[in-house]
Amino acid sequence: MTRTQTLIAMAVCIATILLAVLDMNIVSAATVPIARDLDPAHGVDKIPWLISAFALASAAALPLYGKLCDTLGAKKVFVGAVAAFLLGSALCGAAQSMTELIAARALQGLGGGGLMSVTMVVLAQLGTADGKGGNKGSGVGGIVAGTGMAIGPWIGGTLADHANWRWIFYINLPLGIAALIGALLVLKLPVSPVRHRIDYLGATLAAAFTSSLLLATSWGGKQYAWGSPEIIGLLVACVLTLALFLRRQTTAAEPVLPLSMFKVPQLRYGFAIQGLLGAAMMGALVYVMVYLQAVRGLAPAAAGLYLIPMAIGMTVVGLGAGRLTDRGWRIKTFVLIGTITSALALAVLATLDAGTSLWQVRGALLLMGCGFGLLMGQLIPYVQNAAPAHQLGIATTSIRFFQTLGNALGAAVFGTLLSRVYEAKVPGGSTSTIAHLTGAARDTAVHGFVSAMDVVFLVAAGIMAVAAVLAARLPAETRPVPTTPVESGQLVDA
Fold first, then answer.
1. Which letter does DSSP use for residue 464 in this model?
2. What is the rounded distance in angstroms from the CA atom of residue 273 to the CA atom of residue 120?
């Protein structure tokens, strides 16, 4: 590939990552208008499935995507993921009922999982083929993903307020079609000349484990009590499918997640830190928005603007760290600084009360963006550099997989913690009734709610402190030696 072709391909990859992450987060801000339009009587009851369908399909497909990349070549899998995402987007925009929309969101999620993971593989291979290593491309991709998570709710709220909700999905089509055409025309990536078998049973078990875990953590304490038969059944299924999956990975000829990868300390610690980051980031994004809306009375779109400092911090610091890494700075240094900075930012958020200056909130989010930007921009290339060449796809999708698991567990733990602390502070109270209270009763409820949220942020800070301890134990990164397709024994996927 020429230098121009490589730059076009990188732009295509970054656009697809932004598409997937924005779409996943944009919809969360427009669920109520969508439900009322498609099913005024019962649509609101189906909102949990509307939100979960994309995440479930995306997470369930992640382990298989990695193996497909290492088997078929990243270009074919990338094109297929983009095509599935575009088809799902078109069907979402044309949906005439909540059932149709949920099914289309699941199809869109299957493609979206590839856009957020396979694209990182493509970026790494583009960087290596260009002779400069994959750090910059994969790092930028991670930053773009994080920034999309930060600004997605604001964009979704704005579109829902000022345009038809169907444009949330239709807006994907022109950019997605351009990305698809660009990929078909310019992408030339290496593929293995050796035939590999795909462990479909292992992939099915991984999907079953992930789905049961996500459903249990999404529904537990909300749609169903934690002790209900539905949640207990899901947790039992989660444990059983995990055990079967791990057993399968020890017996399969070519497992979808080789357990031998965990013997590599760079991968083992990298996966763990990414999982902890996923949990803490989920707590930060969700509960800052809750604080701004429930305690400070801001509208969803106005509250979303407060995440812009976080997005700025992620972008500026992440790109700056990428440049320094290219000049020889150690990735481990940035990961350690990122975990410590994130922990400090969450500790600042743990001091919030009902009258805290909103500039303090913006400052804490800017600091948090700096920490998260260092992590999301550096952990992915760190893991990619340490992975065996024939397992690059598996290693890349695995780090996304562990972040997804961290998101799910973080949401469950923080949600339960918030409810329990609030009930202890306000006996007999419920967080869902705060908006309807007045006078002294509201003051008491708000004080209890803020105190409970402070505990959530403090626990999130503790999680990032654990991540900092792991970051301090990271081995020095390895840097792959660039090779041409011929030197590496690979064929070019034209």
1. H
2. 18
- What pLDDT is stored for residue 288 in this prediction? 86
**pLDDT tens-digit series, residues 280-328:** 887 777 788 888 877 888 876 677 788 888 888 888 887 788 778 777 7
Kindly report the pTM of this predicted structure: 0.79
Single-letter code of the amino acid located at 52: S
Residues near 459 by beta carbon (within 8 Å), at least 6 away in sequence: 283, 413, 414, 417
Chain CA centroid to CA 13, Å: 16
pLDDT tens digit sequence for 151-195? 666 666 666 666 678 888 888 899 889 989 988 988 887 666 556
Within 10 A of 485 (CB to CB), how many other CB atoms are there? 16
- Token duo for residue 19: 């598409």
CB-side neighbour CA atoms (13 Å) of 437:
18
Distance of CA 459 to the CA centre of its chain: 20
Q: Enumerate helices (H) and strands (E) in the chain, giving the number of each.
A: 17, 2
What's the rounded Cα separation, in Å, for the pair 362 and 492? 48
Yes or no: say if 282 and 465 are a contact pair by the CB < 8 Å rule: no
Residue tagged 């509307």 (tokens)? 50
> Residue 151 and residue 190: Cα distance in Å, rounded?
34
Region of poorest pLDDT, from 47-51, 394-398, 442-446: 47-51
Angstrom distances, CA of residue 162 to CA of 114, 155, 156: 31, 11, 10
Q: Which two tokens stand for residue 489?
A: 């024994």
Report DSSP state, residue 291. Answer: I
Tell me if 67 sits within 8 A of 256, measured CB to CB.
Answer: yes
Number of residues that make up the chain: 494
Give exposure, 46-80, as e/b (b: 16+ Cβ within 10 Å): bbebbbbbbbbbbbbbbbbbbbbbbbbbbbbbbbb
What is the C-alpha to C-alpha distance for residues 162 and 156, in angstroms, rounded to an integer?
Answer: 10
d(C-alpha 115, C-alpha 80), whole Å:
10
